Amino acid sequence: MAIEHVWKSRGDVQPPPIEVCFFDVFGTMVDWRGSVEGALYEFLTKKKRVPGTQLVATGLVEKFAEAWRNGYYAFTKSISSRQAPVSVADGNHKVDVEHRKILSRLIHDFDLTHIINEENEPRDKQLLDELNLCWHKLEPWRDAAPGILRLKRETGVMTATLSNGNTRLLADMAKYAGLEWDLILSSELFGSCKGNKVVYDGALDLLSMSDRKAAGAMVAAHLSDLQNAKARGMTTVYIRREGEEPNGEDPNLKDYVDFIIDSIDELTEVCIFTKSQRDKRLTARL
Q1: 32: helix, strand or coil
Q2: CA torsion through residues 39, 185, 200, 278, sign
Q3: What phi and psi, each to the nearest 5 degrees, are found at residue 239?
Q4: Is 91 exposed, middle or buried (0-12, 13-18, 19+ CB in 10 A)?
Q5: Bridge pairing between strands 235-239 and 259-261
Q6: What's the whole-model pTM score?
Q7: CA-based R_g, the chain, Å
Q8: H-assigned helices in the chain
Q9: Which of 124, 144, 214, 277 could share a disulfide with 140, CB 3.0–4.6 Å?
């Protein structure tokens, strides 16, 4: 894997040794799309007896999952744009709660009230409550769990989430997916969502890194996340994940992207590289 060329374009600037990798989770570490589509398909075919052939023919599951995710994006964007912080105690602003609200709305938007009627059928409400928890059990990308273990074993780098998911959701997901984080950080701890500088600054400050922000690496499959992290002084690592950059933008053309990888396993090489550059500088001074 060619790493060094990414930094050569920065002239004399050298990468600082990475101490902490902060990970986006949805899409970056777990396959939210395949997992949610699978949960929806099982719910509709097994709990509501909708023929699978009908779901395939209409593309309902795929469209519904995408709309559910888009509703989440709209919610987090509205929170990140606020100036005043949102209290963690305000349950109405938890992602879990918002996911549930979006789910109820989509039942109407997709004209499924003849199949699911939670207003008049308590059992349907319970079933939707259970379906909403599918976001707690998202399947990891194949390289995610072993990649994290190798990263910690071979580099000693600390690993932490930095996600808009609420803390309980992230904890459940980590347990389900076998993601052995050193620390679980949710944007709810900082009263906003990613996109707002307080989330990135807050995470760095919490780990006593405000004076060396570039030693914190934001790892994500979304360019907007990395652009915001770079604006706060962090090192940025883009990981390619199918379907996560729908606009087809090329990360190679973005000056705020420091490294590009194809798997979490390659992140170990990135961290080893940054430490080797520090060692070279120290040797050169002797």
Answers
A1: helix
A2: negative
A3: -115, 130
A4: exposed
A5: parallel
A6: 0.92
A7: 21
A8: 4-8, 32-42, 52-58, 60-80, 95-109, 122-132, 144-155, 167-177, 197-206, 223-231, 265-285
A9: 144
